[in-house]
Amino acid sequence: MTAASDGLDGIIAAETVLSHVDGEQGRLIFRGHDIEELAGHVSQEAVAALLWHGFTDEAAAPETISRALGEARVAAFEIGRPLLPAAAGLTVTEGLRLLLAALPDTYPLPHHLLATAAMPVFVAALARARQDAAAVPPDPALPQAADFLRMLRGMPATPDHVAALETYLVTVADHGLNASTFTARVVASTRAGVFSSVVAALCALKGPLHGGAPGPVLDMLDAIGYEDQIEPWLEHAISDGDRLMGFGHRVYRVRDPRADVLKTVALSLRAGSNRIRFAEAVEAGALRVLARLKPGRRLDTNVEFYTALVLEALELPRDLFTPIFAIGRVVGWTAHIMEQTRGGRIIRPQSAYVGPMPKAAA
Ligand SMILES: CC(=O)SCCNC(=O)CCNC(=O)[C@H](O)C(C)(C)COP(=O)(O)OP(=O)(O)OC[C@H]1O[C@@H](n2cnc3c(N)ncnc32)[C@H](O)[C@@H]1OP(=O)(O)O
Ligand SMILES: O=C([O-])CC(=O)C(=O)O
């Protein structure tokens, strides 16, 4: 047997038509479209139409999907609202895990639609419940991004906020075989169903090394505080063995293309603000420090650095960042789940046993 690959690095574990991450060129393609062609130009529903195409029975037009998601948000609200008291005392991500796990496998709506629609409904209701505010019912006529902000805030969001969130949700919709998508595909490969696969994916996303990085990015900016502290603070963090959140990637050896897409969004919301200028200085300092202290590894900015600044500019609380990532990524998860269950075999790699062998019989 060959040696194990640490972290499955470089192992190709699935064929997919959904997305391609070109780590050398810094390019991300969704089904034949560069991310720059989609983000800021199309709706989340249009990306769902693109990624789900061929896996579902319903017509793939974005308007049809928008209507179906609207109806599914109403259904999700009916399922989730009575369960909110059970989430008291949990974080929003933990509450989301609980409510998603309660989606019944027998529910008579297409499960990829209900899982996708449930995300904004549950996140908004859980965030409001935390502040003793009543859940706001969905408006099925709105697109997901606009309805999420409306359900969260209890009032319609401004067009610039809706557009910024929409761009973010499109940007993070899919990303090859990242940890959460791989998890979704493993669970789907056992035929456990869409809801179980999505719950498992959310659990993988929750970790700080994957979708949990943007909140800590802001914590890092706050902790650094002043321009003259940037490099000393970062050097100290690395010498303590910490990782700089928002930097490094398993696949990209150059800058993550989504960083520039989201930097443009952050600038559009907060042009000329001290916060963005400071973040740019921290980014530049981090790249210098990483090149100096980790010379063997090409570490660059990843999607999470400017995600943090976009979500902060949208005045969203830090503990909602991971669940909001899930509102975008569920489109990719469900597409991969459907792709995996179309004839894919159970995912079952092997391990190399390095433990002791039984003692020979005396
Ligand atoms: C949506 C997303 O999930 S994007 C990723 C979000 N996560 C983060 O931003 C967290 C910070 N980044 C990281 O922890 C990593 O870069 C990961 C998890 C994203 C990728 O990890 P891997 O490709 O497995 O890199 P690996 O863990 O093998 O690290 C290789 C070397 O680079 C170093 N390194 C990698 N990322 C960083 C970082 N952000 N800061 C400091 N050092 C780093 C490691 O310490 C290691 O060096 P060492 O061998 O001297 O210890
Ligand atoms: O691809 C990865 O490993 C992590 C990532 O950037 C994502 O999931 O968007």
From TrEMBL:
SUPFAM superfamilies: Citrate synthase. CDD domains: BsCS-I_like. GO terms for molecular function: citrate synthase activity. GO terms for cellular component: cytosol. The active site is at 249, 304. It catalyses: oxaloacetate + acetyl-CoA + H2O = citrate + CoA + H(+). One of its GO terms (biological process) is tricarboxylic acid cycle. The keyword Kinase does not apply. Gene3D superfamilies: Citrate Synthase, domain 1, Cytochrome P450-Terp, domain 2. The keyword Transferase applies. It holds the Pfam family Citrate_synt. Keywords: Transferase. InterPro entries: Citrate_synth-like_lrg_a-sub (IPR016142), Citrate_synth-like_sm_a-sub (IPR016143), Citrate_synthase (IPR002020), Citrate_synthase_AS (IPR019810), Citrate_synthase_bac-typ (IPR024176), Citrate_synthase_sf (IPR036969). Pathway: Carbohydrate metabolism; tricarboxylic acid cycle; isocitrate from oxaloacetate: step 1/2. Belongs to the citrate synthase family. This is Citrate synthase.
